[in-house]
Design brief:
- The complex is a heterodimer.
- Chain A is an alpha+beta fold.
- Chain A has helices spanning about 5-20, 55-60, 95-110, 115-120, 140-145, 170-175, 185-200, 215-220, 225-230, 240-245, 290-310, 320-325, 335-349, and strands spanning about 1-5, 25-30, 35-40, 65-75, 75-80, 90-95, 125-130, 155-160, 160-165, 180-185, 250-260, 265-270, 280, 285.
- In chain A, strand 7, helix 5 and strand 8 (about 155-160) form a beta-alpha-beta unit.
- In chain A, helix 8 packs antiparallel against helix 11, helix 8 (about 215-220) packs across helix 13 (about 335-349) and helix 9 packs across helix 11.
- Chain B has helices spanning about 85-95, 130-140, 165-175, 220-235, 265-270, 275-280; strands at about 20-30, 35-40, 55-60, 60-65, 80-85, 100-105, 120-125, 150-155, 180-185, 215-220, 240-245, 260, 265, 270-275.
- In chain B, the strands form three sheets. Chain B has a six-stranded antiparallel β-sheet with strand order 4-3-6-1-2-5. Chain B has a six-stranded mixed β-sheet with strand order 9-8-7-10-11-14, sandwiched between helices.
- Helix content of chain B is about 20%, strand content about 25%.
- Residues about 1-10 of chain B have low confidence and may be disordered.
- Chain B is of the alpha/beta class.
- In chain B, helix 2 links the parallel strand 7 (about 120-125) and strand 8.
- The chains are: A alpha+beta, B alpha/beta.
- Chains A and B meet through strand 4, strand 5, strand 11, strand 12 and strand 13 of A and strand 12 of B.
- Chain B: This is NAD(P)H-flavin reductase.
């Protein structure tokens, strides 16, 4: 573990903003919410934030991105798949968002090799920061994602006048090369451990009433509990916001766009979500998840059971974004999980 | 810009890179269905398994998944049978030989002919569900000696909706396969001298060893429940049944999520499923 004075860290970021070939982005306070956005200087950073509206997923899998271009060349079409290598330096990622990115890496790189994602991810540098504040809808401590020892190039912990820096990768170490850093003292190492083990868990007002390891079983047992799903989704507007703000949601749709007046165009993919009414529809007016309760249920099953079945991860990292952004106030996974647990408990008695 | 017709992948191995498919022949049936014969660059074979699908791109319009209807035993261009029901399919119906489309794939898990080696097979096709099954039916006919007794049951709404009429006649008249057909009804302006009634009314007439025959089913969503009930009543074990299911697919690779059936992705775990795998998946609707 290294230690860097805060002014030195800010100078390092300023230097990267002016010299790194990549955009340097980080957490800023936009007046109403915290957001990941371009940094003009390190002074823009708000590393004591609670949660950002969108996760840094938006840089690795943008809300809309071109994946293919085509043009008509004398009656024959030329197609060119696109995978932009526009990685970013991303500063200030909370541990739960790093866990989410690790889950996406497993799917998009290790398992299915999605080039548009892989190129951006492998060219990005991730600087994490241990939490100093938590949103009132977050429950990351219960999900085991409030701290992490992987998924970052560098991880900062605020120690007042200095940051303690854990180095996760060689690229992270090299990033610090030009800065004045020193080795952490035993006391500083202990302080970081104390923050991670005692201070961070205390930031959360909400918690699961059971171990997240039980979640796949609890969801499976409640699959046919339609009374619960219908009751719970009664107010759901199927707007899909919970899908869109989720750091582990990655469903998309592909659209073909013609450049008007030409014989060229492109295919782009955009975020899509299972809560949206037509998500599971096919030609011929068939919709395999026609009822809002079915869509609502699918979202939770996917988060806590299906992704676990396929990839071994619980795809809810407890950030609470879906809860705070839900227009109808029904997307709250902590509440849903706890109520499902109670249903199982009641059933067992 | 480098021509993608000479290189399947432009940047590394990018799965979203299509190749040009040249439409070499089309054939309209009396209904809203049309067969497209498509040739890949340099006469390359698609290399598909019966039941697999391709993603087809119509430049400027969109992309959609289509099951391959020709058997891999047929060399040269492959065939798709497409009903005009959406933007992409309507645009396709306006295309003609000499036009090109983009092709990605083949994708998905099809029927593995080796699984059925030496065994009896009953094919049950409803409507345009014959298109994917035809790939496997023609495979078994082309390599007839590798399989046991073959039976096909085909039902559609009305005579005008029948696909591949010449082949149906060959199947009916030939002695390599038992062929039964039905239509739900026959409008007055059409001719029909076969039986009328939904497909489940014909299934009990098939003469097969229910204990050992494999049953391969493809049809509209509403058909599966009733056909499976019928097979159950006949005593066909679930383990002998294979279904090809339809869903929407945007990526073909198990990512975009549109085709999910519970934790399964139709585009990679299917579209052909062994029935016991999807029997208890509520979203399979079987």
């Amino acid at each position: 573990m290294k230690v860097i004075d805060k002014p030195e860290f800010e100078a390092l970021i300023d230097e990267k903003i002016s010299s790194d070939r990549r955009d340097v982005v980080g957490v800023r306070d936009d007046g109403e919410k915290y957001v990941f956005d371009d940094l003009e200087s390190a002074g823009d950073l708000a590393l004591d934030y609670d949660v950002t509206m969108l996760s840094p997923k938006k840089y690795l899998m943008p809300q809309r991105e071109t994946i293919l271009e085509y043009r008509d060349a004398n009656g024959e079409f030329e197609w060119r798949a696109k995978a932009e290598p526009d990685g970013k330096v991303i500063v200030g990622i909370h541990p739960y968002d790093l866990v989410a990115i690790e889950q996406l890496d497993k799917i998009f790189i290790d398992t299915l090799r999605d080039e548009p994602y892989r190129r951006k991810r492998e060219n990005s540098l991730l600087i994490g920061v241990n939490m100093q504040d938590a949103s009132e809808t977050a429950f990351a401590a219960s999900m085991g994602t409030a701290t992490t020892d992987s998924g970052y190039d560098l991880m900062l912990t605020d120690l007042g006048e200095t940051y303690a820096v854990n180095i996760g990768t060689l690229e992270g170490k090299e990033f610090l090369n030009s800065a004045d850093v020193r080795k952490a003292t035993a006391g500083e190492v202990q302080e970081v451990e104390r923050i991670e083990q005692e201070v961070v868990p205390d930031l959360f007002e909400r918690e699961l009433e059971f171990s997240p390891a039980l979640l796949p079983t609890i969801l499976e047992e409640n699959y046919d509990n339609m009374a619960f799903w219908e009751d719970y989704s009664e107010k759901c507007l199927s707007c899909g916001t919970c899908n869109m703000v989720c750091p582990t949601c990655y469903c998309f749709s592909v659209d073909m766009i013609r450049d008007l007046g030409t014989n060229s165009g492109r295919e782009s993919r955009r975020w899509d979500g299972c809560l949206l009414e037509d998500f599971a529809s096919v030609a011929g007016d068939e919709n395999f998840r026609e009822e809002v309760a079915e869509r609502h249920r699918h979202r939770f099953m996917r988060k806590g059971w299906y992704i676990y079945e396929r990839y071994g991860d619980i795809a809810c990292i407890g950030c609470g974004r879906c809860t705070s952004e839900c227009v109808a106030d029904v997307a709250d996974p902590c509440d849903v999980y706890n109520k499902l647990y109670q249903e199982v408990q009641a059933h067992a008695q | 810009m480098r021509s993608s017709t000479t290189a399947k992948f432009d940047i590394g191995e990018n799965e979203y890179q299509p190749v040009n498919g040249l439409i070499t022949r089309t054939r309209s049936f009396t209904g809203a269905d049309k067969l497209f014969e498509i040739q890949l660059p340099d006469g390359e074979e698609l290399g598909h398994q019966p039941g697999q699908f391709v993603q087809l791109l119509v430049p400027g319009v969109g992309e959609a998944p289509f099951s391959v209807t020709s058997s891999p035993t047929k060399p040269g261009p492959f065939e798709l049978t497409i009903r005009a029901v959406g933007n992409v399919t309507r645009a396709l119906h306006n295309m003609e030989p000499g036009d090109t489309v983009g092709i990605r794939g083949p994708y998905g898990s099809g029927f593995d002919p080796d699984v059925f080696e030496g065994e009896d097979i009953l094919f049950i096709a409803g409507g345009i569900g014959l298109a994917p099954l035809r790939s496997m039916i023609n495979y078994t006919l082309d390599e007839r000696e590798r399989f046991g007794e073959l039976t096909t049951v085909y039902g559609c709404k009305e005579p005008a909706e029948q696909l591949y009429p010449d082949e149906l006649e060959e199947w009916a008249e030939g002695d390599e396969m038992t062929y039964l057909e039905t239509v739900d009804q026959c409008p007055q302006d059409q001719e029909w001298d076969g039986p009328t009634g939904v497909i489940t009314s014909v299934i009990p007439e098939v003469d097969i060893d229910v204990e050992t025959s494999n049953v391969l089913v493809c049809g509209p969503p509403v058909m599966y429940t009733f056909v499976l009930q019928e097979l159950d009543e006949m005593g066909v074990p679930d383990e002998n049944i294979y279904l090809s299911l339809e869903r929407n697919m945007h990526c073909g690779r198990g990512l975009c999520g549109h085709c999910q059936i519970n934790e399964l992705y139709v585009c990679t775990d299917g579209p052909v499923f062994h029935y016991p795998v999807v029997r208890d998946k509520q979203e399979a609707e079987v």
